[in-house]
Write a structure and sequence with these properties.
Helices cover 26% and strands 38% of the residues. Strands 1-2-3-6-5-4 form a 6-stranded antiparallel β-barrel. The chain has helices spanning 5-19, 67-75, 105-113; strands at 29-35, 42-52, 55-59, 77-82, 85-96, 118-124. The N and C termini lie far apart (37 Å). It is built from 3 helices and 6 strands, in the order αβββαββαβ. The protein has 126 residues and is of the alpha+beta class. The longest helix has 15 residues, at 5-19.
Length: 126
């Protein structure tokens, strides 16, 4: 079971603003910069992100049906603030991998424990 919806609401209003202060610089974390597909409002969503072989992979700890995932897929791209830099990413794809082999070992164990089977994969825009 992915993390519960009530926790997502709490994090959106309490944890995310605080996490946003360091998530854009800390290894293994980043901030997805995106616009609402209906409102056009700008959002900053802290995430766990890992780069390997030119691809960025973001753990979907709340599942694949969250607004920020719908927003970036509808837009066909987004910006990611990670390690103090902003990277423009394109063609986000939601992938399914219950084994989480794409994630580092310690993170993989946690993702498997909470059954976070999905992740977003995207590559830098040309």
């Amino acid at each position: 079971m992915v993390l519960p919806h009530a926790l997502a609401n709490f994090n959106r209003h309490v944890t995310n603003p605080t996490a946003g202060l360091v998530a854009g610089r800390a290894p293994g974390f980043g901030i997805v910069l995106h616009k609402g597909r209906k409102s056009g409002r700008s959002y900053r969503t802290p995430v766990m992100v890992f780069e390997q072989d030119g691809a960025y992979r973001i753990a979907l700890t709340y599942g694949r049906n969250v607004d920020w995932v719908k927003n970036i897929c509808a837009a066909g791209g987004f910006a990611l603030e990670t390690r103090g830099h902003v990277v423009e990413l394109t063609d986000p794809v939601v992938r399914h991998d219950p084994s989480a082999v794409w994630a580092p070992l310690g993170v993989r164990q946690m993702l498997k424990t909470i059954s976070a089977d999905y992740y977003v994969e995207s590559r830098p825009a040309d």
